[in-house]
Every structure is written in structure tokens, then in C-alpha cells.
From TrEMBL:
Span of domain Cation/H+ exchanger transmembrane: 17-401
Keywords: Membrane, Transmembrane, Transmembrane helix
The organism's place on the tree of life at top rank: Archaea
Localization terms from the record: Membrane
The protein, known as: Sodium/hydrogen exchanger
PANTHER family linked to this entry: NA(+)/H(+) ANTIPORTER, SODIUM ION_PROTON EXCHANGER (EUROFUNG)
InterPro entries linked: Cation/H_exchanger_TM, Na+/H+_antiporter_fungi, Na+/solute_symporter_sf
Example GO molecular function: sodium:proton antiporter activity
Pfam families: Na_H_Exchanger (PF00999)
GO biological process, one term: regulation of membrane potential
Amino acid sequence: MQDLNIALVTIGGLTLLLSLVAGLMRNKIYVLSEPMVAVILGVVIGPFGADLLALAEWGDPFLIVEQFARLTVGLAVMAAALRLPQRYFRERVRSMAIVLLPGMIVMWLVSGLLVFFFLGVSLWTALLIGAIITPTDPVLAGTIVIGSLAERDIPASVRNLLSGEAGANDGLAYPIVFLPLLVLQHSSERAITEWLLSTVLWEIGTAVVIGAAVGAAAGWIERKSHEHDFLEETSLLSVTVAFTFAVLGGVKLLGSDGILAAFVAGLLFNRFADASDEADEQKVQETVLRLFTFPVFVFFGMAIPISEWFALGWAGITLAASVLLLRRLPMMLLFHRFIRPINDGRDALFAGWFGPIGIAALFYATVAHRILGIELVWSASTLIIASSVLVHGVTATPFTKLYGQVIDRDHPQAADDDQSSAFVEG
């Protein structure tokens, strides 16, 4: 019971403090981002600090982090889906297809080759670590695209692109992660067969179909309930949060990808639900997400393998720096001419830099550790995650302000297209 009270006072106090000074931190004290402060608190109260709390006393630390990360990412992808304009993916089909198909593959291969080069592990182990750190994190991305600073300095088209990509590629990273994971578990021939039939056709296919069907049905019911005054305000505000948990749990029981299903369900719910209720639902979703975000970053701080990081030496530091510079930025510069919301090189540089690695990668790292038990996968992945939390947190506000200053505000923005939904890509 004492451990619970320590957790309540530390994590609750942190959430209270950061919530009260969120605007001050983003605009004035931007060298410390909220996730960074949460990670630091985890280190301070964890085994490497004052040793006030230890996840091992509550159960399997990896299982605790995995499940808390799964819930947080599920809430984050649902929030990202609700944040997007209706029919966004339908009207941006080419741009999103490029970012989510060749774009993700390039990020995966570049990251994997960097791991292979700097750590000298087997190719499939390197590709597994590369896959874990491929997805753009919706939690950290949300801290960049939400708020008055973002609304002032980042065009809506770029904010929507980052939200849409971060929401979708968390679930789509699932087959990329499981391909090398299955190869490391089984023979290559058996792994490829299981990956195609089980992972791609069943788990991904089922997630998309169920997520779309449940999301559309829930949105339609919500709209009809609103029209007939069946909804009370208090019940309305709990709809999307309960919806997220139900989809995550239900689809997982079927052995499918609950994170991808949650995002698809959010898109379809967004499409069919009553627009006047949606703004309130989005605010509640963001609020609940915030309550989950701080604890999971604190848990991350408590679980980071500092001694294993030191064992990686300069190779680990160089790997982390190389991943942050080369994983995403070259991909965005390469494909930006085909991505409609990206108007020029400045947009590409901004969108290419802000593809943070966070809770989604943490989730996949714990899954890989649970299945394979390879400590290097955990230590390398968490080092890169911590580096992204630090570097993207420090650069978020100054780079956003700089971007807002240099962007040509007289040039017609893709934001207008996103807001009016008048443009459909060919």
C-alpha cells in the first residue's frame, strides 16, 4: 500500500504541476518537455535513483510497461483519428499511401542497417530493432501538433499529416516488427508463411475490418442518439474513451492488432458521429490520454537499462544520433514532392525532423523482449527512445517558432484544403 501511495503522490503531483504550467513550459522553459520531466522523475524515484519504487515489486516490469504502453498508444491513436478532418484519408490517399508504404519501409531499412553497422548484430536482429523504432509516436507527436503555439506556427495541413501518419503507422508497424521476430523464432520458410497468413491476412486484415465496422456503427448510433436526445452530456463525454478500451480489448481477444483497429475505428467514428459532439469528445480523449502519458513515461524512466546503455559505449551514442538524423529526414526529402501537404523543402525539413520515437516503440520493444528475451534489443531500442524524447523535446518549441517565422504565409497553404475538404488527390 505504501508503494501505491508513493506512486499516487509522485505521478499525481507531477501531472498536476505540469498541467498547471504547460503553457509556460512550451513557450518559455522549452528545454524541458513534459515527457522528459516524467522520464527524469522515473529515474529519480526508481532503482537508479532514490529507490522509492520498483516495478519488479508490482510484478513483471516488462509486462507492466507493455500493457500500460498499449493502453496509452490506443488512446493516442484514437485521439489522432478524432483530431483529423472528416474523410481525411480518403482525400489524402496518395500522400498517406506514400508515407505509410514506401516511407515506412525506407525508415525501417535505414534504421535496421544503422543498427547492423554500429552494433554488429545479425541482420534479422538489426531489422527487428529497426522495425521497433520505425513508427512515429502519436503521444510525442501530439505534444508538437497540439496547442496555441502549433496552431499559430504550423499549417493545419502539416499538423494533420503528422497526426494521420503517427496514428496509422503505429498499427502498420505490427507486421514490420513481426517479420524479423518470427524469423528469429523459426526457420525462414515457416516464418514467412506464418507472417503472411497469420500476421498480414488475419491480424492486420481483421483489425481493419473490425475497426471500420465497429467505428462506423458506433458513430452512426451516436449520431442517431444525438438526434433523438438519448444522450446525456456526462455519458457523451465518456463515449470515445470507453470505445477505445472496448476496441483494444475485444480485438486483442481475437488475436488481432488492437492498436490499428483503434485508429481505424476512430476514423470511421469521426466520419459518422455528430460533428457538434465530436469536439467535446476529442477534448475528453486528449485529457484522458494526458493522464496515461505521464505515468507511462515515469515507468519508462524506472525501467531504463542504464548499465546496458553504458555497455553499448560510443557505438550506442553514435547509433542513436544517426537514427535521429537519417531514419526519417532523408525519406521525407526524397518523397516530399509526392506528398500534397508538403509544399517545399522547408515543410519537408520540419515534417522530416518531427517524427519522434516514443511509447509506440516502447510497446513493441517490450513485446519483442517478452517473446525473444534478447537484452540487446531492449537496451538499444530504449536508448534510441530516450534520445528521441530528449532531442525532440528540446527542439520542439524553438524549431516550431523558427518554422513559423520563415514559412511564406502569403503562399496558399494546404491547410485550407484540409479544412474545407474541397481537394481530393488524384
